[in-house]
Amino acid sequence: MTFRKRSISAASHARHWEAIADLVRTLVIGAFPIISFYLAEVAMSLTDAAFVGHISSKELAAVGLSMGSLFPLLFGAIALVSTGGIFVAEAQVNKNHLEVKSSLDLSLWTCILFSPLLMFGGAMLPALFEITGQDSSIVNLSSQYLNVVIWSIPPILGFSVFRTFVAALNKNSIVFSVSLVGVVLNAVLNYILVFGKFGAPALGIVGSAISTTVSSAIMLALMALYCARRLDYRFSLSTYSVVKSFAALELLRLGGPAFGIGLIESSQFGIVTILAGQYGVNFLAATTIAIFVSDLFIVIALGLGDQLTVDIAAFAASGDRVSCRKLAIAGIGLMTLTCVPMAAACIFYPNVLVSMFLDSSNVDAASVLNISQELLAVLAVFLFADGAQVVLSRSLKGLRDTLVPMWIAATGYWIVGIGGGWWLANRAEWGGIGLWYGLAAGLTLSSVAMGFRMHFKVKSTEI
Fold first, then answer.
1. pTM, whole model, 2 decimals?
2. Which long-range contacts (CB under 8 A, 24 or more apart) does 172-178 make?
3. Nearest to 79 by CA among 109, 101, 110
4. With CB atoms 3.0 to 4.6 Å apart as the test, which of 228, 299, 414, 456 could cross-link to 38 if both were Cys?
5. In the predicted model, is pLDDT for residue 239 greater than 60?
6. In 3-state terms, what secondary structure has residue 360?
7. What distance in Å separates the CA atoms of residue 179 and residue 440, rounded to the nearest whole number?
8. Are 388 and 362 in contact (CB under 8 A)?
9. Please, is 239 exposed, middle or buried when counting C-beta atoms within 10 Å of its C-beta (0-12, 13-18, 19+)?
C-alpha cells in the first residue's frame, strides 16, 4: 500500500512539473515576439543614441534626456491601450468573435483620442528642461529632436494595440518579423540622415528623430496590413458604432491605473535623468548610457509581463487559479535566468557596454566611462527587483487588479526611489550616485509588495 501511494505521489509530481513545463514553453513562445517589439522600441532609441553619440556627448545627452522624459508618457499610454488585450483574451476564451473585434476597435479609438495629448506633452518637455536648469545647449538639441520624434507616438501606440490583439489570439509570430524590419530600417536611415550619406543632407540629431518616426509608421502599416489580410480585421472611422459604452468605462477603470503604473515605473528613470543633468553633462551622458543598458534587460520582463497579462486573463476567465499562480511563478523564474548574465556583464564588462555609445576619441570619453562604470555596478544590484516588479504588475493586470499596484508603484518608485535618491544625493551629500541607490531601494520595495499582492490575490476567490 505504501509503495502504491508513493507511486501515485511520484506520478502526480511528474504531471505537476510537466504542466509547469508546458506553461513555461507556451509563455516563452508567446513572449518572444512581444519582447522583440519592446526590443525594437529600445533598439531605435539605442540606435539614435549610438549614432548621435559619435557626434558629441551633448547630442548623446540630449537624446537620453528627451527619450528618458518622453518614455514615461509613452509606456503609460502603451499600458492603457493594451488593456483591451484583456477583453480580447476573455472574448476569445468564450468564442465571442464579435466581442473580439469590438475590443480591438475600442483600443484603437483610445489611441486616436490619446495620441494628441501625448504629443502635446512631449512638445512641452523642453520647457520643463529649462525650468529644471538643464544646460541651454542640451535643451536646444532636445527641442529639435522632440519636435520630430513626437510624431512617432501615434504609430507606436497603434502598433501596440495590434501587437496585443495578435498575442491574445496566439498569432503573434508576425510581431518579431515586423519589429526586425523596423530596427534595421531605423539603423539604415540613421546612418544616411545623421551623417549625410548617399547624397542626403547631414541632419544630425534631427535626422535621427526622422528615422525613428518613419520606421514606426512603417511598422504600424505592416501590422495593420497583416491583420486585414490574415485575421480579417479592418479598422475604419465608422467602427465607433460597435464600441460599447460599458466596455469603454471598464477599459478606463482598468486602463487608467495601468497608465499610472506605466507612467510611474518609467518616469522614475526619466526624473533621474533630469536630476542627473544637475551634476554636469558627463554625468548626464553616463546616466543615459546606464539607463539604455537597463532597457536591454527590462524589455525581456516587459515581454513576459505582457504575455502573462493575456494568458492569466484567459485562465482567470475560466476560473483556473492554479494556472494563474504557476504562470506568475514561471514568469519570475524566466526573468531571473535572464537577469544573471546581464548583471555579470555590468560588473565584469562595463567598458564593452559603454563603448557602444561613446567614441573614445571624444574629449570627455574618459570621464563618461569612469562614471558609467560606477552606475552600471549599482544597476547590477537592482536588475532583479526591476524585472520582478514589471512581471508581477502585469500579472496582476491580467487579474483585473490595477489600482492597488498603482499605489504600490507610486510609493516605491516616487516616494522611496526618487525621494530617497534625492535625499541621498543632496542631504547625505553622496552626489549623483545617490540617485541610483534611491532607485535600488524603491524598486526592491515595490517588487516585494507586488509579490505579496499577487500571492493573496491568487489565493482569494475574487479572481
1. 0.73
2. 172/30, 172/33, 172/34, 173/33, 174/33, 174/223, 174/226, 174/230, 175/33, 175/34, 175/36, 175/37, 175/223, 176/32, 176/33, 176/36, 178/219, 178/222, 178/223, 178/226
3. 110
4. 299
5. no
6. coil
7. 31
8. no
9. middle
C-alpha cell at 21: 513545463
**Burial class, 240, CB count within 10 angstroms (exposed 0-12 / middle 13-18 / buried 19+):** exposed
- Amino acid letter for position 355: S
Is the predicted pLDDT of residue 241 greater than 50, yes or no?
no
- Kindly give the interhelix angle for 57-81 and 153-168, rounded to the nearest 10 degrees: 50
Q: Which of 300, 40, 295 is nearest to 156 (CA)?
A: 40
Dump the DSSP string for 267-315: HHHHHHHHHHGGG-HHHHHHHHHHHHHHHHHHHHHHHHHHHHHHHHHHH
Contacts of residue 330, Cβ cutoff 8 Å, sequence gap at least 6: 20, 23, 24, 27
Average pLDDT over the chain reads 83
Q: What is the DSSP letter of 236?
A: -
